[in-house]
Amino acid sequence: MTSPQDWLDWRAARHAALVAPDGWLNLTDRVEIPPGPVRVGRGPDNDLVLSAGPAHLGMLQLTPDGAVLTTPDGVAQAFVAGQGNPQLTLPPLLLELHKADGTTALRVRDITRKPQISLAYFDHDPSWNVAADWVPLASAEQRFIGQKGAGDEEVTITHRAVFSRDGKTHALLPTHWKSGRPMFVIRDATSGKDTYAAGRFLIGDVTGDEIRLDFNRAHSPPCAFTDLAICPLPPPENRFAPSIRAGEMFP
After folding, report:
1. Phi and psi, residue 22, nearest 5°
2. Among 142, 131, 125, CA closest to 204
3. What pLDDT shows up at residue 242?
4. Three-class DSSP category at 9
5. How far is CA 61 from each of CA 64, 75, 76, 241, rounded to the nearest angstrom?
6. Torsion over CA: 177, 181, 182, 184 (sign)
7. How much is the average pLDDT of 232-244?
8. 198, 221 in Cβ contact below 8 A?
9. Cα(2)–Cα(157) distance, rounded to whole angstroms?
10. 165 in a structural domain
11. Are 60 and 153 found together in one domain?
């Protein structure tokens, strides 16, 4: 079981990720990319008009593996796929490709920004650090999950996390995976009051047939910080009637 100090360290890391150059607080644009080469920049004569950066950033062309942007001086630079979406840094901008509803969009971040934010949390509650059963489904289930900012997304669900609290059994569904760890989207009686209305994210830690769910680390999704993000919504199984007074509060 994690200690209160581990939780404070997690909070510090979460804050650092939000204010980092590739965090959610310096996102300036999300624009869908049409077929064919398109001119990109802040000037009104571009095909994709941005709100930050130079008047003429260059010519953008989607490729089977990502995209290539050719700058006005004729230098072609490819987007590079790392652990996440393909990205390209052209100071002062960080460009990223993101696909939703079958369409690829360009996400733009201004890396010169120095965002500031203060995050609030409920008091640490050890009782909300739960050891749940990690139960495989009889067969993988295809499910359409609603999204804020886009249409439904089809996901594959293979397990559920089962635990009891206050005499009631809960079986939560992990709809996504982050860095190899199952992610749950949850909503409870605090949503829209003390916490973000659409719900919160919770990442689990699996060991054999057990999964650790530390609700003290439940946190707001990117959509809580910017309307330019797209976020999954909780399935019915992950909507709690009681209050989960643990984790991150409304930013």
Report:
1. -100, 20
2. 131
3. 85
4. helix
5. 10, 13, 10, 48
6. negative
7. 93
8. yes
9. 27
10. yes
11. no
Q: What is the domain count for the chain? A: 2
Place of tokens 């293979």: 158
- The strand pairing partners of 206, in sequence order, are 211
Residue 205: domain span: 120-238
Burial class of residue 167 (count of CB atoms within 10 Å of its CB; 0-12, 13-18, 19+): exposed
Is the same domain home to 128 and 226? yes
> 63: Cβ–Cβ under 8 A, 6 or more apart, which residues?
78
Tell me: the pLDDT tens digits for 96-128?
Answer: 999 988 899 999 999 999 999 999 999 999 999
C-alpha to C-alpha distance for 126 and 23, rounded to whole angstroms: 29
Q: Which residues pair with 212 in a beta bridge?
A: 131, 205
For the chain, the distance separating the N- and C-terminal CA atoms, rounded to the nearest angstrom, is 27
Whether residue 15 lies inside any domain: the answer is: no
Q: What is the pLDDT of residue 232?
A: 97
Cis amide bond preceding 92, omega within 30: yes
Tokens of 68: 């290539």
Q: Kindly report the length of the chain.
A: 251
133: helix, strand or coil: strand
Q: Look at residue 189 and tell me if it is in a domain.
A: yes
H/E stretch holding 201 reads: strand 200-203
In the structure encoding, which two tokens stand for residue 75, read together? 């230098």
Beta strand extents in 21-114 (DSSP E only): 27-32, 38-41, 48-49, 58-63, 66-70, 76-78, 87-90, 93-100, 103-110
Q: Amino acid identity of 133?
A: D
